[in-house]
């Protein structure tokens, strides 16, 4: 062995022996002088305390801090001078391990190197007046302020907490921080500026409440990591350099500055690639319950600051948070935003110098782009102010083909085959339970060249265009043009208070619609008579809510229509200069007033059609003025009967009609469904080839032409009851014969019409005066006949033995 190595080993051996002898000497000293050492330790710990630390006993624990020596203080209590008033121990520990410097111990001075607090409870208490039991650490009155900090300061190189419950309870500020500390290890250095240290932390958070009235942050979450800290005497502040701290298993970069004299603090937080839900669950319930109504599918990046100036002026600390969202899916109560990008921010003091709290809070979304129901949206800035009564504002712009909306509204009510939409809207709305209410909207939506199928009514609109204008709560449509089959409609529309009623009372929405058309084929609008035929969808959640709202609005809203048409056509019916005032509300179509030129005369009517499952009921009050009776019967398909048809009639009709009945969903009047009354006047009329009249001629008047009976004037009243027409007593004066008629004419069985027919030929009375004609009407032979059913379902004529 080389000589230098031997010398080195000998020196090392001597040093080891010296260390062991020194350690044994210290251990022996402690064993022989436990009382004096305990007194010295407590004296060292109590130096400059406004209170007292006590221990019930002390035992040496020789091997715990070799080559130093250590002791275990049992039953340790640390109480401030006002403990008797508030009864909160600042420290209560089963045992505290204290490591001592052996050399300083031998020379009679206790120098504490490290402290380990085990199985303990630390309760830092501040009462409602602002007094804290941490005042125990303030310098005693009259202490030597000129002494060097180095000469009197307690400088502990290492501090460990094991199984310690730590509570910071501030009654004045309503703050409560409660931790179950599994382990805290601190390595300390003491430069002139203060101290520095590395702190290894592992703890569970029971409460982290900046305001106990609003709940705790980080509830039941674990904190695990290493922090770099230093204390600045100049600032009287503890500064935590930004380090990674695992919170609930996710790495956060945390930095902080805590000003001890003012109880002020500033905390910076940065976290990347974290799920929005996991962040929300770290916050207080009053915040997380609101945030969890939203969802963000992919991870996001967050930066935040929590600042408290220590004044207690506002109660809550100042919070500023920034969030970065890229190519994400965001769920909101009104649907989903896909391909979503934005930079978001939150602060609870939006107005600089203002209060801190919900009333002065703001959420802002900057440069937001997304697809909403496949429609691309662009919002430069969207803001939600005053979270106690939230108000959302923003300018929304979008341009997209209407076909993007197919299968995205949560309903199959609409199918868009063509067309474009250009949207520019400024929106302001209250947010109630995270749904937009009382919206105020200004702006315009332009729809061009649209091809739209409204499936519930099977209406196919082509070449459609309109400008939808929003003026705060009101909505208007201008320059609307629609084509439905061969029908063309030009539309202008006004809806007052639309935005408010859309959500709260769609049945109160009143649409004032003005339409004009060069030509209208009424049959193309028959789908309005039938029931809705909406297909069921499997959509769920928010999309289903939106589609249900939209369908309800379309079906429940009321509509007043003012319609002018140059030419209106329905099968055989053709009219000109139609002027109509129509209302759609509930399940009915109400004809308030309709006038039209038809068959050389004028028709006016009012009434309604009530939609029902199998067929629709209708009521009509009509006035007919001097229309061609032949054309009139032809146009209305002989009113559902084939006994008296347009082929049997000539002349001009004026009438008052008050009837009700049923009409099919295809627009056909159901046979035998009509009830009501018809008061009519025929002028310059003729009854041509009317079967009952022809049969009477064959029976009694073979020499007269009853196949073309001319009537200059006839007044009559008909009461219709299903398939039976009650003919009120009526005097008929014609070219072939005069007769009186009354009774029941049935479209099926039940005909019983009495006729009194004088045999006098009316042509022989042509030169008589009116009075003479009336007096001569029933002179001579009078036939009393009755028209009744025959066995074959037709009509037969027989004598009326029971005539009056």
UniProtKB/TrEMBL annotation:
Matches recorded under Pfam families: AsmA (PF05170)
Ranges where the AsmA domain occurs: 1-239
InterPro entries membership: AsmA (IPR007844), AsmA-related (IPR052894)
Any Gene Ontology CC annotation: plasma membrane
Biological process per Gene Ontology, one example term: regulation of protein targeting to membrane
This protein's name: AsmA domain-containing protein
Taxonomic lineage: Bacteria, Pseudomonadati, Bacteroidota, Sphingobacteriia, Sphingobacteriales
């Amino acid at each position: 062995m080389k000589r230098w190595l031997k010398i080195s080993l000998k020196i090392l051996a001597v040093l080891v022996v010296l260390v062991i002898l020194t350690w044994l000497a210290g251990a022996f000293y402690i064993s022989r002088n436990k009382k004096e050492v305990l007194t010295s330790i407590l004296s060292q710990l109590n130096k400059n305390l406004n209170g007292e630390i006590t221990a019930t006993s002390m035992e040496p624990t020789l091997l715990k801090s070799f080559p130093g020596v250590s002791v275990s203080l049992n039953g340790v209590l640390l109480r401030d001078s006002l403990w008797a008033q508030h009864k909160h121990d600042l420290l209560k520990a089963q045992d505290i391990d204290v490591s001592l410097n052996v050399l300083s111990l031998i020379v009679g001075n206790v120098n504490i190197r490290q402290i380990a607090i085990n199985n303990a409870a630390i309760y830092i208490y501040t009462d409602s007046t602002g007094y804290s039991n941490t005042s125990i650490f303030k310098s005693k009155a009259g202490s030597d302020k000129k002494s060097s900090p180095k000469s009197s300061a307690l400088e502990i190189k290492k501090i460990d907490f094991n199984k310690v419950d730590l509570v910071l309870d501030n009654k004045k500020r309503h703050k409560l921080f409660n931790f179950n500390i599994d382990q805290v290890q601190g390595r300390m250095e003491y430069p002139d500026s203060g101290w520095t240290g590395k702190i290894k932390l592992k703890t569970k958070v029971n409460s982290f409440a900046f305001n106990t009235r609003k709940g705790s942050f980080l509830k039941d979450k674990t904190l695990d990591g290493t922090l770099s800290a230093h204390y600045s005497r100049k600032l009287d502040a503890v500064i935590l350099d930004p380090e990674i701290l695992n919170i609930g298993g996710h790495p956060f970069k945390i930095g902080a500055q805590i000003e001890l004299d003012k109880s002020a603090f500033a905390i910076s937080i940065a976290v990347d690639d974290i799920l929005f839900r996991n962040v929300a669950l770290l916050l207080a319930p009053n915040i997380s319950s609101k945030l969890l109504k939203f969802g963000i599918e992919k991870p996001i990046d967050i930066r935040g600051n929590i600042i408290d100036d220590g004044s207690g002026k506002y109660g809550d600390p100042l919070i500023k948070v920034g969030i970065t969202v890229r190519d994400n899916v965001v769920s909101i109560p009104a649907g989903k935003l896909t391909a979503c990008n934005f930079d978001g921010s939150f602060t609870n003091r939006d107005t600089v110098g203002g209060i801190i709290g919900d009333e002065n809070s703001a959420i802002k979304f900057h440069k937001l782009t997304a697809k909403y129901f496949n429609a691309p949206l662009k919002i430069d800035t969207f803001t939600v102010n005053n979270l106690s009564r939230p108000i959302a504002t923003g300018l929304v712009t979008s341009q997209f083909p209407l076909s993007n909306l197919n299968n995205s509204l949560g309903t199959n009510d609409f199918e868009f085959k063509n067309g474009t939409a250009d949207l520019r809207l400024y929106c302001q709305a209250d947010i109630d339970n995270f749904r937009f209410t009382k919206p105020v909207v200004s702006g315009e939506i332009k729809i061009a060249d649209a091809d739209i199928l409204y499936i519930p009514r099977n209406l196919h609109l082509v070449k459609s265009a309109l400008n939808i204008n929003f003026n705060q709560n009101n909505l208007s449509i201008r320059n609307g043009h629609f084509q439905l089959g061969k029908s063309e409609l030009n539309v202008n529309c006004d809806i007052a208070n639309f935005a408010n009623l859309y959500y709260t009372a769609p049945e109160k929405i009143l649409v004032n619609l003005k339409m004009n058309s060069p030509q209208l084929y009424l049959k193309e609008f028959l789908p309005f008579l039938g029931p809705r035929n909406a297909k069921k969808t499997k959509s769920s959640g928010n999309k289903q809510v939106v589609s249900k709202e939209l369908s309800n609005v379309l079906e429940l809203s009321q509509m007043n229509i003012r319609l002018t048409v140059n030419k209106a056509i329905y099968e055989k019916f053709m009219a000109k200069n139609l002027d109509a005032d129509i209302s759609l509300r509930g399940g009915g179509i109400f004809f308030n007033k309709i006038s039209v030129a038809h068959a050389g005369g004028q028709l006016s009517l009012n009434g309604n059609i009530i939609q029902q499952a199998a067929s629709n009921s209708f009521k009509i009050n009509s006035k007919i003025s001097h229309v061609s009776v032949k054309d009139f019967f032809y146009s209305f398909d002989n009113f559902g009967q084939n006994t008296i048809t347009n082929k049997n009639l000539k002349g001009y009709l004026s009438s008052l009609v008050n009837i009700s009945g049923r009409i099919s969903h295809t627009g056909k009047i159901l046979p035998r469904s009509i009830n009501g009354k018809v008061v009519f006047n025929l002028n310059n009329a003729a009854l041509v080839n009317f079967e009952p009249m022809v049969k009477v001629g064959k029976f009694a008047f073979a020499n007269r032409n009853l196949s073309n009976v001319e009537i200059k004037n006839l007044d009559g009243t008909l009461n219709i009851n299903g398939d039976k027409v009650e003919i009120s007593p009526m005097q008929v004066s014609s070219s072939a014969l005069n007769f009186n008629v009354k009774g029941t004419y049935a479209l099926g069985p039940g005909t019983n019409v009495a006729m009194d027919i004088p045999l006098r030929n009316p042509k022989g009375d042509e030169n008589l005066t009116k009075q003479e004609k009336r007096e001569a009407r029933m002179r001579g032979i009078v036939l009393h006949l009755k028209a009744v059913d025959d066995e074959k379902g037709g009509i037969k004529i027989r004598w009326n033995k029971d005539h009056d």
